[in-house]
Amino acid sequence: MRKMGVKKGDRVVGYLPNSEHAVEAMLAAASIGAIWSSTSPDFGVNGVLDRFSQIQPKLIFSVEAVVYNGKEHSHMEKLQQVVKGLPDLKKVVVIPYVSSREKIDLSKIPNSVFLDDFLATGTSEQAPQLEFEQLPFSHPLFIMFSSGTTGAPKCMVHSAGGTLIQHLKEHLLHGNMTSSDILLCYTTASGLMATTAESTPRLGASSCLAGVTAHSTPTGCGLAARKSITSYTLNGKKVEVAVKQIIAGKAVEQGGAFSNPETLDLYRDIPELQGF
């Protein structure tokens, strides 16, 4: 990012699933004082541009396709239109998420590059040294957006210091998280819920990421994690299915939608499962 000219205050965005790539890009941007924002691949072109056109990003990360309900959905045509609507973009980084890079055509997307090639520019002899930008408590970290149901989505800026305090409060006081815990974050990368996983390393804890548009189902996530996951952040629309599979956990943090009565009954009937 430094090599291509990203600096403090610039906006870096992701059009990504809730995956390790989103976390890595966000942390890299934060380390140099850039501001991160993201939307998920299920957003249409207008939904993305309604948000990103307001903040004029310099760099965008995206996948080439996603899998949902067992079916592959190409992302390239939407990405092409999004890039056309963001004139300040200097670079488009495409992450091979479903297919190998040999099967992906970048010719129609200007200033595009595969992730591996982008990373290689940071390992050359001319690459700048990795230095963490020293910034004030109130320096912007994230730009979130309202849902857009009452007009254009509205920007909401979250500071680095405020975000860290809020996350530590949720993890430590509400979730009783320790360094031995593993957080399963089942949500999209479009909102605040996904960011909670990015602060778990501050406590020595680990995160398990699962995007709603990924290869897995909420039931599958719960069953796979049952023996090791201790805390959960769940999208409210999916929690009715997932929470039934995670009785081995000790805490569930639910957001993004209202809980239905059945889910609330589960929290009441299972004393060892703390829901908030």
TrEMBL record:
The keyword rRNA-binding does not apply. Pfam families: AMP-binding (PF00501). Residues 2-194 form the AMP-dependent synthetase/ligase domain. GO terms for biological process: lipid metabolic process; positive regulation of insulin secretion. It comes from the Eukaryota. The keyword rRNA-binding does not apply. Keywords: Lipid metabolism. One of its GO terms (molecular function) is acetoacetate-CoA ligase activity. SUPFAM superfamilies: Acetyl-CoA synthetase-like (SSF56801). This is Acetoacetyl-CoA synthetase. It comes from Macaca fascicularis.
